[in-house]
Design goal:
It is a single chain. This protein is an alpha/beta fold. Helices cover about 40% and strands about 10% of the residues. Strands 6-5-4-3-2-1-8-7 form an eight-stranded parallel β-sheet. Helix 2 links the parallel strand 1 and strand 2. Helix 3 packs parallel to helix 4 and helix 10 runs parallel beside helix 11. The protein starts with 8 loop residues before the first helix and ends with a helix.
Amino acid sequence: MLHPSGLPENLLKIDRTLVMGVLNVTPDSFSDGGRFNDQVIATNHALQMIEDGADIIDIGGESTRPGSDRISVEEELDRVLPVISALSGTGVAISIDTMRVEVARAGVAAGACMINDVSGGKADPGMLDFVATLETPYILMHWRGPSNIMNTLTDYQDVVADVASEINQQVEVAVAAGIARDRIVIDPGIGFAKTVDQNWPILKHLDVLEGLGLPILMGASRKKFLGELLAKDGIARDSDERESATTAISTLMAARGLWAVRVHDVKSSSDAIVVVDRIAKTS
């Protein structure tokens, strides 16, 4: 298992695909918006995800669903900091999901041990310089623009080659800013600036991304392309009814040894990964 440097010691010892549980402290995320935007409810849900097998809890206060508009820094801080603070003394590994350096800085100070930036450092000019001062892992996602316009940014010559090339270019920007390459995790950004059909070649040809030699996080949980695949009579399946398909992807990612999957329903993916791991270690 290829882990990034700076990961907490207990996670470095794990030699299977990690499970990152999604905790959206938002009213408008595409799958669970509004369900966990209360501190007590969010904290309890995080603890339940840990019980269900999550290795990392990814806490985000700003929706990045297609078409969403940005919120203020203050509102994002107000959403995430109380939850991070409530969980920081429990030994839970926390990732702060943000595109803003102010939120990343406050999140790390409150107890987050890694930063998940869906913009890969493009949304905030101060992010990469700040991350360079840390020793924590940095998750860099493929990103072409903000959520309210990303559906207009889907022109590719070859989606697999272009995504890999654009990720590699941004990794080089991050390294030039002073971030050690071995601290970087890459994420192909399933559903971000990609049509429904463009996600499948990325999943099919992961060897191209693996060729960059960096740990990979896969965030495909409950996304639109799964709902469209499972459509009946032309009606896409609802987001909370895409879990079996999500688990199938988690199983495939674990079978090829990806670093982590980011999922809403931790238990189903965690169970699948345990099975994959058991088979892989059987002589």
